[in-house]
Amino acid sequence: xxxxxxxxxxxxxxxxxxxxxxxxxxxxxxxxxxxxxxxxxxxxxxxxxxxxxxxxxxxxxxxxxxxxxxxxxxxxxxxxxxxxxxxxxxxxxxxxxxxxxxxxxxxxxxxxxxxxxxxxxxxxxxxxxxxxxxxxxxxxxxxxxxxxxxxxxxxxxxxxxxxxxxxxxxxxxxxxxxxxxxxxxxxxxxxxxxxxxxxxxxxxxxxxxxxxxxxxxxxxxxxxxxxxxxxxxxxxxxxxxxxxxxxxxxxxxxxxxxxxxxxxxxxxxxxxxxxxxxxxxxxxxxxxxxxxxxxxxxxxxxxxxxxxxxxxxxxxxxxxxxxxxxxxxxxxxxxxxxxxxxxxxxxxxx
Length: 350
Description:
The chain has 350 residues and is an alpha/beta fold. It is 48% helix and 11% strand.
């Protein structure tokens, strides 16, 4: 029995005593204890693949802040790495792949990996983290969306304009759809394996879906996320497993996202949460949407922004407070503490 299930109840729009809060990328480089563990691991990938250390860093922010959920420490790019594309991290440049997927031959070689073998280190971490949490708070599992994963697979790393994948989308949509098909089947297997291992909610990170034009977003991103939602195990250990869909830059498509069957929509900081609530009604919960850069402001300004967002959302349940994207590595941990305390205080936690 969970000691604190406020996060899960809010996602399902059940009554809550206060607004729960967690932070995207809450286990990260802004925490000195994380940096020490990562140094001990030798590299980011080795940290992800070491069950004991992945468990340790997942719990670090919970030991420092009274957060209402933990999120699995991993990376969205473990999926294409399991497909044999050779993930590595270049110093100062972010993630890169040794092999890209750009030609008909490349696409023909793509395969759905055996999640139980190639990604067992992730599910091992989920099981270990659940045990270490001892029912303190729920554990969130996650994956990148098929389109976001495809962006990295086609571009070979991060991109400022997504020129290569969007050219493929216009010139050879059949190739991109084939990539997305493989990614979708893989993500369904991957998230279901996380749920079986103990994840109590899952989030689909559609980090780059917002770069798509209207119509193309629905065709190349949203329809595949809807298929994932439909393919997930939604009940486990006698409880519903909520699904969050987060498209960064997707505020104009909230009504469409709500139709996927997800339980909650993640919002970035560009959408007013009160307006979003009026648009989706009681169909889904909302998660968000504090600007991560506001954490560089003094605590009083952070508290004012927290109060503004909570006021905009209004009373009742269905809101999980979060950042509009991942926390910056340069954030002062004391400012993150001020955020969490303000959410609990202003929303009525005793």
